[in-house]
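Long-time lurker. I teach an intro course on protein structure, and each term I like to show students one example going from raw sequence to a predicted 3D structure in token notation. This year I'd like something fresh instead of my usual example. Would anyone be willing to generate the tokens for the chain below so I can use it in lecture? Attribution to the forum is fine with me.
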Amino acid sequence: MIDILREIADKVADAIALIPDPRFRGEEICMGADGTPTSQIDKVAENTVLDHIARNGIRLNVLSEEIGYVDNGAEDTLVLDPIDGTTNSSICVPMYTISMAVGTSSLSDVHTALIRNLVTGDEYWAVRGEGAFKNGERIQAISRSNLDNLVMAIYLGNGANPDSFALAKRIKSSRAYGCASLEMALVAEGMLDAFVMNSEDYSRSIRVVDIAASYLILMEAGGHVYNLDGSPFDMPFDLGHHSDFIAVGDPDVYDFVMKDNCRPLRCGKRFRYGIYANTNIRGVEEHVRRVIAALGDEDYVLDAETARLLGTEGVPLSEMGVDIVITVGGDGTILRSMLLTDAMVLGINAGGIGFLAEIERGEIEEGIAKLRRGEYKVEKRLKLRTRYNGEYLEDAVNEVVVHTDSVAKIRHFRIYINDVLATEVRADGIIVSTPTGSTSYAMSLGAPMIDPGVKAMVIVPMAAFKFSSRPIIVPSNAKITVEQILDKGCLLVIDGQREYGMPGPSKAEFTMSSKYARFIMFDTDFYSRVQYKLENAI
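-- Reply from a regular --
Happy to contribute to a lecture. Here you go:
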């Protein structure tokens, strides 16, 4: 099979060499099956591949970004990016490739792969179980990276998540080559410590055609590819599916990129604390003073409203720039704080049930002492990102609710999973919940409780007209679209804290955020918390 792929690469190299002027390579001539414009060079390359397969009776189906899926009745499919790095080719940057992988249905079953740099002629290839090679020499990813001397390829295009720019500042050196297949191959070759793809725009995340070949090459070179949540990476042979990921040689590099949950004793640094309280709770001033006393000589700052209650100076939570926020209030206080800061949060329950809070009122001094000693763990929880009217709204820790803006008025919703219609529902509204939120509003409507370690989201109809309209659990990497099809209004509410008008007909999209909520916790596990706080609640 490698010889067949090499013959195809030869034909493509010859064909694109006939394009007279590099400026013509990037000329857009039509719209591809993946929903992006097809350029001259892309179409020439793809047509060459399809023609070679047809003329030689090669038993392969084809999945390509331009034409889509071509069913040739074969068992295996050629996953093809005819030109990866089209823009590079049109401006004479010598980094563009033909990328080919052969498998059945997903990355996990790809068994043969080849990438050729169409300028330099360098070839990377791999056959499952036989290792990875560049120009005939075996290659190996870095097994032990120097975390103080990291060099990474990072996606920094116009869909890039702001965290990517922050990451670029944290490491020794970063590059953005505009050719994902080569960026992955450089990790496989041991030239880079990592390739990070983190887009806040789902449509600009990676597609399977971009990395099917380089995925196998990296894995055969001893590397690793992870979803942003740390789970093993896989993608179906489907142009509609997009994903973010981190490709590394050394798994510790993933920890460096994503797991910023160090404790003061382990990190050798003094943390700065913020204190944020619900000033409407009776007696909250006393609890705040106890927190301040327990912090002793630690560096802390008060939220502006909390400071006013104590007759001193403070700053808004969003401007604090602290490492850890200590909240005093109920679950609503914790959720409000997480809309305003990405810091780690420790909750003190001065409200009702306080399911998300770690410390009860009678335990403030003991809890703050554990915090100062670093005797805690940091639990990362999924956050939910909402896109509405072309804009991203605040991330939700618990849930986003779309519900009627009029009392006792039903609405008609269509729910799509990865752009495929999953169900139609007539109901008062729809809840899209994280595992954290499954013990909140979603649970009151009959949805299951979900362990926070499960990477999933749950869609819950509110007072649905049909009894068969039940909650749906979907993977955390899915895109959920809720469409309100009537010409009547709804409200979109984030964690019960932010509210947006949603006139009909309209729709909102929900995906897992690249950011996480970070809860400081002691020894209480999820199930003990459920028994203590929920089963015994009035």
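Some talking points for your students: Residues 261-268 have pLDDT under 50 and may be disordered. The chain has four domains: 2-131, 151-258, 264-376+522-535, 382-515.
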